[in-house]
Amino acid sequence: MQRPGIVHRLDKDTSGLLVAAKNDSTHIALSHQFEQHTLDRVYIALVWGSPRPREGVLVGNIGRNPRNRKKMAVVERGGRSAKTHYHICEQLADGHWSLIKCRLQTGRTHQIRVHLSTKGHPVVGDPLYGKRRDKLSKNLPTTAANVLKNWNRQALHAYSLGFTHPTRNDRVLLECDPPIDMLKLLESGRS
């Protein structure tokens, strides 16, 4: 069975790194690392507010939202265990936003978005788990508010990915800076 190609996926409208395999054996080896959670995955997220404490671990089983099947949620029964480590890198837009790094210990559907939203700090621009933009943005500084008006996706970026190379058996660390649109959004919060 030929399985070369994309080994994992990113949420729609999330930017950043993806791993693709050129052959079947590489695909199987990398898929196994994803299943065993032996990869290092770091995301950058711009969130509303400022999570407390400044760094910590978000834990909660993630499963289908019982009230909206298109969404995932932290659920009390069932679901799959999920753990997200986070720390605040910078506060922006007069404290309305925080730039955070999230390291995934597990990899569940919408994990970062669900955990941060459940904590009360949804990802900026998240159409599924975010709160109403007009409510949150009414006190934003003018520059940030103006850039946010044209923002049309969640401010989430797969920044780095570390894994064991399937044939060389050495550790590989890949990094990818955020795209220009996200850099402009971040810069607007620094003005």
Q: Oligomer, anyone?
A: single chain
Q: Percent helix among the residues?
A: 10-25%
The backbone outline, from C-alpha atoms, is globular
Q: What is the C-alpha radius of gyration, as a whole number of Å?
A: 17 Å
Strand content is 25-35%
Tally of strands: 11
Could you name the ranges where pLDDT drops below 50 across 5 or more consecutive residues? none
The number of helical runs is 5
Descriptive overview:
- The termini are far apart.
- It is built from five helices and eleven strands; from the N terminus they run βββαββββββαααββα.
- Strands 2, 4, 5, 8, 9, 10 and 11 form a seven-stranded mixed sheet that branches. A two-stranded antiparallel ribbon has the order 1-3.
- It has helices at residues 24-36, 111-118, 133-137, 142-149, 180-190, and strands spanning 5-6, 15-16, 20-21, 40-48, 55-59, 62-65, 68-74, 83-92, 97-104, 156-164, 171-175.
- With 191 residues, the protein is of the alpha+beta class.
- The chain is globular.
What are the defining features of this structure?
alpha+beta; single chain; 191 residues; 24% helix; 5 helices; two-stranded antiparallel ribbon
